[in-house]
Amino acid sequence: MSTWFDQQKKSFADVPIGADNGISTTEFLEAAESLTTLFDVLGSKAFTPVKNDLTGNIKKVRERQLAAPAESETLQALVVNELKTKKHVASEGLLWLVRGLDFTAQALRHNLDNASSELSNSFREAYGNTLKPHHSFVIKPIFSAAMSATPYRKDFYVKLGEDQGKVNESLDREVVALEKNVAILKAFQETKEAKW
Predict the structure, then answer these.
(1) Which of 126, 103, 83 is nearest to 182 (CA)?
(2) In angstroms, rounded to a whole number, what is the distance separating the alpha carbons of residues 117 and 97?
(3) Where are its TM segments located (predicted)?
(4) Which of 57, 112, 154, 191 is the most buried (most CB within 10 A)?
């Protein structure tokens, strides 16, 4: 039985992380793009702004990677090298992408760990912990609408695959890998070399 995870181009579990915690840019962006399709599974048009935000930030990082491939093999190198040019388009894109991925990871982790919790609760709590403090009063209602538009837990998990044991196992594997990538990048973004 195939699950939604089996159909993805790249999983965060497949993103190479170097000895120095350098995260491979190409695989990371492919995994992030794959993950954005999860918002399609949620099924509501209310999630379009959330998905567009993620894909827009992926595009900013990818454009920098394409413009300077030798300086962009890892996300950390991409940021450091872009900042040397006195620009920060991709660096800021990555900052927002990490916030969006952190939001997604926290929502999914909360839902995995709390079997009786509805998705709307998990997403609302994650939003409050991650994106909400950085959002303007114009953006907050758009994202709040998305949190309220989440499907029922039972309907969402069925869309991910028929074999719920396999779905939970795959989801947990993805979330663990996503949490690791996000933690590494958040720590890097706190360093002086990642600031503009």
Answers:
(1) 103
(2) 26
(3) none
(4) 57
For helices 48-67 and 75-84, the axis angle rounded to 10 degrees is: 70
Distance CA(95)–CA(102), nearest Å, equals 11
Per-position b or e across 29-51, b if 16+ CB within 10 A of its CB = bbbbbbbbebbeebeeebbeebb
Look up residue 129 and give its two tokens: 């912990």
Q: Report the chain's C-alpha Rg in angstroms.
A: 17
Q: Please, what are the domains in the chain?
A: 22-194 (1.10.3520.10)
Q: Within a 10 A sphere around the Cβ of 86, how many other Cβ atoms? A: 7
Question: Tens of pLDDT along 112-160?
Answer: 999 999 999 999 999 999 999 999 998 899 888 888 889 999 999 999 9
